[in-house]
Every structure is written in C-alpha cells, then in structure tokens.
Specification:
Four copies of one chain form a homotetramer. Chain A is α/β, with parallel strands linked by helices and about 290 residues long. In chain A, about 55% of the residues lie in helices and about 15% in strands. In chain A, the strands form two sheets. A six-stranded parallel beta sheet of chain A has the order 3-2-1-4-5-6, sandwiched between helices. Chains in contact: A-B, A-C, A-D, B-C, B-D, C-D.
C-alpha cells in the first residue's frame, strides 16, 4: 500500500520509521532537514505536499497544531488540492473539533476520504508500535487504515462514523492528563508546607491510591524538576485544554476543572515556562504557595 | 498486647475483626448493637469508653468525623480522662489537621501518647489486611504500633514526628480521589454530548492513558449508576475536601481544584445526593450539561 | 456628511434614528423589514451592502456577533469590496479582538479606514443619545467620526491608535457586568437559605455598599424574575465572556472569574435559558443551592 | 443610658467617640493605651471587661475577629460571666455565622440579650455617624439599641429575629466587595497587556458602566498602588471570604466566585501581602499575567 506521511516532529518521525519496512512510503516535512534521513531508510522524500501525496492511498498527518494542519490541508498545493479521489487523509494530529469537522466536510466534498485517528503515547511508545489509536470516520475508510494502525499501535478504539469524535475524546484525555498533573502539583505544594517532601507525597499517593503510571511519569518529572528538554511542551498542553474548552462550549458541556487548568497554564506561559515540559506547570502551585 | 478499638462502622468493624486473633482486644461503639457480635469472636465489649480503654496499651479510634472523635476524646469519661499514662491513642480516622494537632497537644500534656495513622483502602482491603497506613508521631510511639499496623496493612508510610502530617496527607489523597472522579465525570458528560457513551470514554481514557484501578472503580460506578448503597458517602467526600481546604488555608497553600470540588459536592448535597456514593458527584456534571 | 448604517436590531435601530436628522443617511439590514420604516423617516434604504455604502464617507456597523460582522465585511459584495477608498468602517458592534484586528488589517490593505467604536448603554440610552463610546483607531479617522459620536453618545473615550483595543475594553466591561450579576445571584441564593429575601439582600448591599445603578438594574430584574423578553440575551453574555477569554488567552492575562462565569453561562444555555435575559443567570445559583 | 464599648481599633475608636456626648459611656480595650485618651473625652475607662460592663444596659463589641470576640465573651471574667441579666450584647464586629449563633444561644441561656449589628462603612463614615447598620435579634432588644444606632449610622436594616442573619449578610457584602476588587484587578491586568493604562480602564468601566463609589475607591487605590497603610487589611478580607465560605457550606449554597477569591487572597498572603490593604490583591492578577 502506498502511504504518505506528513509531519516529522518527534512523534511523526518515530511513527514514520515504523512504517518504512511494511509500506511504500513517502515522507514530507516543511523543514526538509527532518525528512532527509528517511531517504537512507528506504522511503522517498517528497519535495512538496503535492509530490509527496501523488499516488498515495493513505496520507497520514502528524502536525503540531490546527494552524499547521489547516495550512497543509487548505493552503495552495495542499491536501485538498492534491489528494487523489478516493484516497484517505488520516489525521493523527491532536486537532480541535471544529477543525476536524471542517476537514471532514471539505474532503467529502472533494471526493476524498477523511479519518480522524489521534493517539495516546509518547515517542518511545511510537517507536515500539505501542500507541493507542482513537479512530473515527466512515467505517470502510477506517477499515482501510487498519494495516497502518496495526503497525503503529497496540490497540485501536473505534469511535463511530463522525470523525471529529475521535479528536474530542483525545482532547478530553489530554485535559485529564493535565488535571492529574495539576492535582499532584497542588498536593506537592500543600504537602511541602506541611513538612512532607514531594517525593514522599508522590510515593504515598500513587502507591496507596492512584496507582497510575501516568502519575508516576509526570509526578516524577515534577519531583526531579525535569522540565527541559520538553517531552510534551507546556504550551501544547495549554493549546489542548483551550481546544477542549472550545469544544465544550460548542457542545454546551461545562468543564470547570479545565477552566482552572487554562488559567494556571496561561500564568505559566505568561511567566515564560511555555517551552518547558508540561511538568513545569507545578511551578505555579509552588509560587502561589509562596515557595521558592 | 492489650488493644482497644473504638468505632465499629464498616471500616472499623473490618479492621477490628483482623485484630481479634492476635491481640487482647476490647471493642467499643456508641451504638452497642454494632459491638455485640464481637463478643462471640473472642473480644471483650466495653460498656463505655472508660471501661473499654482500661488497661489498654494502644487505643485505636476509627470514627466518622472530627466531631465524633472530639466528643470521644474530650467529652466526659472520654479518652483524655480515661487513657492510662503512657498508653497511646492511635487515630486512624480521617481527621482535620487542626483537630489532630489539638489531640496531639492534649495527649502530650496528659502524659499519654498520640499517633496519627489514617489509612487508604476500602472495607474489603481492611478485611484482608491490605490497607496502606500513613503514620506520624513520636518515633518510639509509632514503633509500638507496628504489630497492629502489620496486621491491618500491606505497608506503612512513616511521615515523621508531627502527628497531624499524616492527616494532612490523607486529606490530600482524598482530594486527589475526588479530583479524578470529577475529571472523569466532566469527561463523561462532554463525551456523551459528543456522541460517545460513558463506558467508552472510561475504557479509552483508562486503558490508554491513566491506567488507574481507582479510576476504574469510581468511573465504573458512575457508568453503572451504582450510587446506592454508598461505599464512601458523598457527604464524607465533601467533609474531607472541606478539611483539606481548611488545612490549605492554615498552611497558605491554595488548592484551586479543590475549590471547584467543594462547590460541586455542595451542590450535590443541596440537591439531596449526600447519602449516595461519592460516584453520584457525576450527576452534577450531567445536569450542568443539560443531560437528564 | 454621507453616512451608511448597517444592522438595525434594537440597538442599531435606536442609533440610526438619532442620525437621520443630522446626516445624509442610508440604512441597510439583512432582513429588509427592519429597514423599511426608515424610508418614512427620511433615510434611504439600501437594497444591498454595496448599494448602501455607495458614496458613504462613514459606514457604521452594529451587528449581533463576529460571524455577522465577518460575513458583511468579507463576504461577496461586502464592505471590503464595496467601500470607497478613504471611507471609514466604524465598527460599533461588540467584536472579538482577533476579528477586530483582522478587519483593521484588511481595510488598511484596501486603502479604507477602520475605527473600532463599541458602546456601553442599552436601547433607551441609544434613543436619547446617551451612549458611552470607546473609540480607537488612527487619530485622523477617529476625528472624522466625531460628528456621529456626538449625536449618539454623552461621551467618547479615546483609546489610542490600535483599533482592537476598544473592543478589548468593551469585552472587559461586559465581563465585569456578568461578574456583578453572578456575584449578586450567589449572594441572593446564600441569603435566601439564611432567611433573607433577595430584595432585602439587594437593597442592603446596593444601598450600603455598591451603590451601582447597574447592580440595581440587573439585581432588580433577578428579584422580579423578569427574564423575558430579553433586554440583553444570556447567550450574548456567554458570547462576550467567551470572546474575553479568547482575548485573554492571546494576551496571556488569566481571567479566573471569567472562567467561572463561562461555566455558569454554559450551564444556563445547556438548560435552555440562552434566549432569556442575562438576569436568568441567577437561576443557576438557585438550582445549585437546591432552591426551586 | 449606660453603654459600654469594647474594642477600640480604628473603627471602634471612631464609633466610641460618636457615643461619648450622648451616653453614659465606659470603654475598654485589651491594649490599654488605646483606651486612655477616652478619659479626657468624658468616658470612663474600664480596667477589665467585668469592670467596663458593670451596670451597662448595652455592651457594644467591635473586635478584629471571631477569636477575639470569643475570648472576650467566653473567657474568664468575660461577657457571659459579667453581663447583668437583661443587658444586651450588641455585636457590631464582623463575625462568622457559627460564632454569632453560639453567642446568641449562650446569652439567651444566661438571661442576657444579644443583637447582631455589623456595619458597612470605613472609619471616616464612622466618625461622621454615616455607617449603615445591619441589625438582627429579638425585636424588643433591637428596639432598645436604636438610640445607639441612630448616633452611629445613617440607616438601619432590620433583618429579623435570628441574630446571625445580620452577620451572614455582612459576610456576603464583604465577599461582593472583594469580588468587585478582583474583577477590576483582572480587567486592569488584561487591559494593560492590551495597551490600556489601568487608570483608563477604571475611568471607562466606572463612568460608563458600574458607576460605583466603592469601585472608585478600591480601583483608585489599585491604580495609585496605595497599599500601605492598610485601610482594610488584606488578611481580614481573606478572613471574611473564608467565613462566608464556611457559612455557605453550612447553608449548602455554593459560592463559586468566592472560591476563586479565597485562592487569590491566600496566594497574596503566602507572598507576604497580608498586612497590606485589600487593594494589594491586584498584585496577584498582575503577577499571573507576567507583569512586574
């Protein structure tokens, strides 16, 4: 199967490397330097979106945000203009619901397919083909993506015919992640002022109560003060919580915890921590408690 | 070792049953009917606090709230008046930090010991001796509690010389638990309005992201609408979040997420859900989203 | 001076009627029925945007939301395409900052002027020429609007060269208004449960403390349960708080109170109160307190 | 009429000075230095609570917080022990609802009267007899306080037979005040990042919208950075919001805005601003927006 993979950041690169051996793969990245190494791995490197997707049956996108996805899809020489009739755009980026809806409508009108397939998992899980994939879109189109999904993930959650549903659930998940991190951060500052070291608070709460590897990973990063380099940049967390709130507004389903998260993330960004790891959100709880 | 166990609600009864075989045990409960069965198990049943603690080296309390603990400790014929010099009050109830501090000071002045030892775990874990115990107080006193702790729990977290520290961390833990429940409840309502069944939202988020048995247990109860009988009553969750906020006020460590939780729990109580299980908190997110 | 006035809702109609006598006025409304009566008042009625703005030196817009403003400005036959070089678009609608910025850039590129001039005041104040006008944009362009402003308002606040600044401040004002309403609503429910009638709470707090006619107006509507017809529809309040939060996100200036307001307004909308007056927001505080 | 006045802080002193000429007055203050000057004004200075209230028909208290009021009322040689049967304790301090209830019950049991009569107004209003008085308690007792109220205030709001009701409404009022201050502070930081000076934001919003002298006073203090000396100390604002939240918890009437206020005030206290004027709350919004 001919597959094009667009967007070679840390996640995208890890995913594309999984696909080289099993598929007839063309890659593309706006910054060509990240694409070049793939030629030695056996993939073709497209010089443009149009060139990359020519002849592809599936085109996977894995981009940083809605603006990048929209530019690549709707811009001149973009996906809408270049994709062959019947070919499928598989949007694995974390996108806003409105953007995902807009892509679905545009591709349908152009006689092209569109499947939303955002993922949970960090780059190492991507390297190992251990992602979890949330897939939504027309059933026959999702089925055609299955070989790619099988190579990338340890499981696929089918979420129905409406593509944007998968992006909605992905945003809910990222909001849950930030909630857990904020909750731990507040507990650490509270505990510290009560005389308990953050590592103790983490150990007790996650051993005796939560038992979540996610809490271990993010809580551990907070305890170690491991904020750089960013695995998942704080500003991307803010982006996702903001997108969740936008979707919640459209759905009329209030998310009061997310409102708090957005305020804290905005404060962190205003203070210059936006490019640090999401774990740096914990700095705000410390500062609000007068800890330095 | 002579041990007295005061407070035989669901948790207290399960814990006291663990202790019958290994210790010279006297039990007491304000409502005598809950104590009576222990006589057939080989324990003595005290007719009063004074009678129950006479000769006891350790006196464990496991009561519903601060008011009950204070009445039992400071009331006429209570623990302060009855405990032998050198005997230790082991407060395993979930108490406020100020109450725990007050108990520590009063017992010290009376020449009695005081160890704070709240637990994580539900009645079945108590039955099985699988609780997690947070222990704080003077080192030598905590050491003397070890035989009892070993029988009740799968592990003890020592938290230093200041007893109330253990209660502070227990409150932080219960706040974290309610946070996770509220976060899931918001995600369920959000998801439902996006067309995703709550059981799917739970399955995806807990399989792919959080991987927490706690989320599974509480989220599962929400999905099934299993609100009665209450395992952990909603009004007790409100009590604990309120105590956490009080402690946070005294420590000057803001807990913004807990502020939201308190509002939601208060709304649930005002609407008459206080005696249902904590999982009934999810009703508020549904109602706020216009779901019925 | 030739003036075109686009958008004849309750506010727009009241404003346009003020201008008929003093200016050479053409009006336009998408729904022609609202425009027709102006022909008997001495104004011309345009059949299209293009026709309405032909020859106009100033074109005032007073529309319900960003979508209407964008359609009218950027749509086919819209303002950008129709306005004469040097003519000025005076946006008196309450708009988002990003939309206002986009309009400013587009008009500048087209060689047209753009002044942001949102107002405070309700229809009766507009009838009486007693609005307050927040004006921003290039100084010479703002100066050319002065005759129109003088007819419509009791005062103009000049806010500098950057047009969107005026819209930002208007959004901050509407957020403040909703904050006062929410604060009163919470006080009413709190007071009611303490045995104090809402009218007493309002009388005491506004006589002895706040002394604000705004509080009197909105608090009075709450006390009387006067939710229909809507003077200022609740869904428009939600729109404006949402726009304020979007602007705050772009500016990196958290608005935690506004986060609460948005949740409450969303709940009100989800429950079907969106077309009632903003004062219906008070229903949420009552319901959360278990009052019926 | 013989009147005793206990508590001679800034407010208490100003109020007591109003009473010297018209009543047979004895004053008392824990720190004697503040009481001494009253002997030259024609009042007696009591050496103890017991001495001060001997023979008094009305005993007014104006103390800083619940702890001071409770110590003075319930402590050895305190009001409960010293007040003559039939004499009335007029609690003009800002007290928690639970404390006020406890005082009402204790005085009734002791055959003494108790009227709750907290006030709105700052020291200059007290000097001028221009306070607003919220009065609640048994009707005949409130009636007997009227001569004192007439001298101190420009108006009395009768709030029924249940004394604590007056304190509940006073707490609601102080919460409203802090809400307005926080709302302005957020608007100032938002405006500043949009290029609008805080004094402009204040002028526009209070001229065109809110028109509140309270907003003018507190907003003006923020704009001028006039945080010291404290007219109304920030930590007292935190105390009152905390008391309002406690009362709300007992009444089951959520106050979500107050939850935000408490977090911000706690942060301000943790950062060392507690002894500054309440207007210093604005520093938190600035810091959260990255302004310095």
């Amino acid at each position: 199967m001919r597959v094009a993979f667009l967007g070679l950041g840390r996640m995208g690169s890890a995913m594309a490397r999984r696909l080289v051996a099993d598929f007839d793969l063309t890659v593309f990245n706006r910054d060509w330097a990240k694409a070049a190494p793939f030629s030695t791995l056996g993939a073709r490197v497209g010089g443009s979106v149009r060139e990359a997707v020519a002849g592809a049956e599936l085109v996977v996108t894995m981009l940083a945000d809605d603006a990048a996805e929209e530019a690549l899809a709707f811009g001149p020489g973009g996906l809408l203009a270049s994709l062959a009739p019947g070919a499928i755009h598989v949007a694995m980026s974390t996108l806003g619901v409105a953007t995902s809806d807009r892509l679905a409508a545009a591709h349908a009108e152009a006689g092209q397919g569109y499947v939303a397939a955002p993922v949970f998992g960090r780059p190492p899980a991507a390297e190992a083909g251990q992602l979890w994939i949330l897939a939504a879109g027309p059933g026959s189109q999702v089925a055609r993506c299955q070989p790619v999904f099988s190579k990338l993930g340890q499981g696929v959650f089918p979420l129905g015919e409406k593509a944007a549903t998968a992006h909605a659930l992905k945003l809910a998940g990222n909001t849950l992640l930030v909630t857990v991190l904020e909750a731990l951060s507040e507990a650490f500052a509270f505990g510290e002022k009560a005389g308990i070291a953050p590592e103790t608070t983490l150990k007790v709460l996650n051993t005796a109560l939560l038992k979540s590897p996610l809490a271990e990973a993010y809580g551990g990063a907070v305890v170690r003060g491991a904020f750089e380099p960013a695995g998942f940049a704080l500003r991307l967390g803010l982006k996702d919580v903001t997108l969740a709130l936008q979707a919640a507004g459209a759905l009329q389903a209030p998310l009061p915890l997310a409102g708090i998260l957005r305020d804290r993330l905005q404060e962190a960004t205003a203070k210059g921590y936006g490019d640090q790891d999401l774990a740096a959100l914990s700095r705000i709880s410390r500062e609000a408690a007068g800890l330095t």
